[in-house]
Automatic annotation (TrEMBL):
Residues 48-181 form the Retropepsin-like aspartic endopeptidase domain. PANTHER family: ATP-DEPENDENT ZINC PROTEASE DOMAIN-CONTAINING PROTEIN-RELATED, ZN_PROTEASE DOMAIN-CONTAINING PROTEIN. Pfam families: Zn_protease. Keywords: Signal. Gene3D superfamilies: Acid Proteases. Residues 1-37 form the signal peptide. This is Retropepsin-like aspartic endopeptidase domain-containing protein. InterPro entries: Asp_endopeptidase (IPR008503), Peptidase_aspartic_dom_sf (IPR021109). It comes from the Bacteria.
C-alpha cells in the first residue's frame, strides 16, 4: 500500500528560480507604468529654469517667460482693444494687444473661454478674460488657458502658471535660468 501522506519535495533551486522570475516580471511591469506621465502625455518630464526663453504663436521674436508654480493660470500682458459687453459668460470674441517691455507687440483676437475673478489688495474682486493660446516653452508647444492682465509693472510680460507647466510636463529648478532652447519643432503660424 502506498503512503498517501508522503510529502513531495521540490528542489530549493527550482523554488528560488520561480520566485525570482515572478518578482522580476512584477517589477518590470511596475517600472514601465512609472515612466508614463501622470496626465497621460507621452512627453517625459523636463526640468526647466525659473526663467526661460519661449515664443507665442503669432510673434516672430523669442520672449523671456517667468515660470511660477504659485500661479494657477498662465498670464500675459494685454491691452484690451474690444470685448463683449457681458463679462459674466464664456463666448464672444475679445481683441487685445500683447505688449512686451522691449516694444514687441501683436494684436490677437480669440474667443473667451471664461472670466476669472481675481482678488485685489483691498478685499474686493476684479474680472479678467481667459482665452486659449499656444506657446512654445522650453522646446515644447503647449496650448492652454491664458488670462489677459495688465503686467506692465512686472519684469516679465508672460507668467507661465501651473496649468501650462502640467500640460507641458515641465518641472522647475529654481536655481537655474535659460536651460532650454526657445525654438519648438515645426513652425506654428496663426
Amino acid at each position: 500500500m502506498r503512503n498517501l501522506f508522503k510529502r513531495k519535495h521540490y528542489p530549493i533551486k527550482q523554488i528560488t528560480f520561480s520566485l525570482l522570475s515572478a518578482t522580476l516580471l512584477f517589477c518590470a511591469g511596475c517600472g514601465s507604468q512609472q515612466t508614463q506621465a501622470s496626465d497621460g502625455s507621452e512627453q517625459p518630464l523636463k526640468t526647466v529654469g525659473w526663467i526661460e526663453k519661449g515664443n507665442i504663436v503669432g510673434l516672430d521674436e523669442p520672449l523671456e517667460f517667468k515660470l511660477d508654480t504659485g500661479a494657477t493660470t498662465t498670464s500675459i500682458n494685454a491691452e484690451i482693444i474690444s470685448k463683449p459687453d457681458n463679462e459674466t459668460e464664456a463666448g464672444g470674441m475679445i481683441k487685445f494687444r500683447f505688449i512686451n517691455g522691449d516694444d514687441t507687440s501683436a494684436v490677437f483676437e480669440r474667443p473667451i473661454t471664461r472670466w476669472v475673478k481675481i482678488k485685489d489688495g483691498e478685499g474686493g474682486y476684479f474680472r479678467r478674460p481667459v482665452v486659449e493660446m499656444k506657446l512654445c516653452i522650453a522646446g515644447r508647444w503647449v496650448e492652454e488657458e491664458v488670462n489677459l492682465a495688465d503686467r506692465d509693472q512686472f519684469n516679465y510680460s508672460v507668467l507661465i502658471g501651473r496649468n501650462m507647466l502640467k500640460k507641458g510636463n515641465l518641472a522647475i529648478d529654481s536655481n537655474k535660468k535659460f536651460t532650454n532652447k526657445s525654438e519648438c519643432k515645426g513652425q506654428e503660424v496663426e
